[in-house]
Amino acid sequence: MHANGREYERLGILVGSVAWLANFVLGLTLIFLLVGLRWATLISSAVTVLLSLDFFPVFSANIPADECGVGRAVLRPVGVGVWFWFGSIAAAFIGASVLFLAPRTLLPQLPAPREPAQ
After folding, report:
1. pTM score, whole prediction
2. What's the pLDDT at 35?
3. In this structure, what is the dihedral angle of CA atoms 46, 48, 50, 56, given to the nearest 10 degrees?
4. DSSP readout, 25-63?
5. Burial (CB count <10 Å: 0-12, 13-18, 19+), residue 2
6. Of 15, 44, 80, 104, most Cβ neighbours within 10 A?
7. From the CB of residue 44, how many other CB atoms can be counted at a distance below 10 Å?
């Protein structure tokens, strides 16, 4: 029996996958990135990457195909949507790394304005 994954995407933790938590942590990463919290952004983006890597073992998991648990389902290989999902997580991690490594001030200090001559 084949399933496209849509029927089982809500199972998440019931089949041993915590990859769906990466979406929530990715949201926190983007909030930290917008606020400019360097350490929090880097840590949450690294946690997002680690959680998202838990997605692949789902394809080798023994997933029940019916309520009785008699039949077993085989998931199809990942599609383009998964790669966009991983791409957004990678982009957030790269952005967090750039923010973390960037100097605090990018512009040189400007001299104080002069008083106009009278």
Report:
1. 0.64
2. 86
3. -150
4. HHHHHHHHHHHT-HHHHHHHHHHHHHHHGGGGGGGGS-E
5. exposed
6. 44
7. 24
Question: Rounded to the nearest 10 degrees, how much is the dihedral formed by the CA atoms of 96, 98, 104, 105?
Answer: -130
| Residue where the block lists tokens 């997605």 | 55
Q: Which of 87, 84, 96, 82 is nearest to 46 (CA)?
A: 96
Q: Is the dihedral of CA 85, 89, 94, 99 positive or negative?
A: positive
Q: What percent of the chain has pLDDT over 70?
A: 67
Residue 79 φ/ψ, nearest 5 degrees: -105, -170
**Hunting for tokens 């997933």 — which residue is that?**
63
> Tokens standing for 27?
């949201």
